[in-house]
Amino acid sequence: MTYLFYIAAGLAGGVLIGMAGLTAAMVLTPILSGACGWSGYDATTMSLIANVPSAIVSSYTYYKHGNADMKRGGTISISAFVGAVVGSWLGYLFSQVSENGISYLVIIGNLFMAIKFFRPTKQKSEASALEVDRIVREQRRTLLALLLSFLIGVECGFMGSAGGMMMLMVLTLVMGMNTKLAVGTGSIVMTLVALTGAVSHLIMGATVDLIPAIIITLSCTFGAMGSARFANKVNERLMSCCAGVVLILVSIASLTLN
Questions:
Q1: Do the Cβ atoms of 58 and 128 come closer than 8 Å?
Q2: Which residues make Cβ contacts (< 8 Å) with residue 163, sequence separation at least 6?
Q3: Pairwise CA distance, residues 125 & 146, whole Å
Q4: What SS3 state is found at 99?
Q5: What is the tens place of the pLDDT at every residue in 191-241?
Q6: How far is residue 199's CA from residue 193's CA, in Å, rounded to a whole number?
Q7: How many domains in the chain?
């Protein structure tokens, strides 16, 4: 039965990555700690490990369909990576080895993002703006995004999350990207941040058994691959609604298991 939970949790986490650009920790951490008896720290570490190949597969799928901004995504990734390194170092100094209450915070975050996905994305029109003003606003948005991505990286390195939910908000609300472009671009950022967090957690003493890790990671990667392909074939509105439904179901399951 435990292995069925591993497979189901991995698939659900992969769907969140591939369809919504969110971290697998939003479902893996509550299920592994609530239903499988893992410690919160080890469950978060496992989530980060599974995030790495899943985010790579997802970002590549979005890139093939023209839904990943490599230039801006690469710049933001560097900023988030630097922040994650700083956060990991701070986490080591403060011996951040406890995740008390993290599952319920994750569930609240799931529900918040579900509401956002059901709301249509509003695109700002700049057709009537002067070109100079447009460039200035674009530069300000980029600088703000770099700052926020650095802070997200610090938080992720310190707490051990991949920051998918927060990064998605930066890309949509600050950078003005549509949902598909934000998901594809955010997956690029998530890869580096998740890798940094996973390595730092393992260094700080997290323990993950090999067989469960393989099962969860493969399931998560498969879920990300399938959901990313689906998301790039349907229109954005349907994609957002599906992502919202998944988040609500995950939240309900997480509350039940906890």
A1: no
A2: 23, 80, 152, 153, 155, 156, 189, 190, 193
A3: 23
A4: coil
A5: 888 888 888 778 877 888 899 999 999 999 999 999 999 989 888 778 777
A6: 10
A7: 1
Separation CA 205–CA 203 (nearest Å): 5
- pTM for the full predicted model: 0.74
Angle between helices 40-64 and 102-118 (to 10 degrees): 30
Q: Report the C-alpha gap between 256 and 124 in whole angstroms.
A: 40
CA–CA separation, 123 and 116 (whole Å): 15
Query: Which residue shows structure tokens 């039940």?
Result: 256
Measured CA to CA in angstroms, residue 242 lies from 19, 171, 231 at distances of 8, 20, 9
Q: Which domain holds residue 57?
A: 2-257
Instruction: Report which of 132, 111, 134 is spatially closest to residue 124, judged by C-alpha positions.
Output: 134
CB neighbours (10 Å) of residue 71?
8
Rounded CA gap, 127 and 134, in Å?
9
With contact defined as beta carbons under 8 Å apart, do 168 and 180 qualify?
Answer: no
Please give the single-letter amino acid code of residue 4.
L
pLDDT tens digit sequence for 24-75: 877 888 888 877 888 877 888 898 899 999 999 999 999 998 888 888 778 8
Tokens of 9: 């949790």
Helix locations, the chain, DSSP H: 2-15, 25-34, 40-64, 70-93, 102-118, 131-159, 164-169, 179-203, 210-233, 236-257
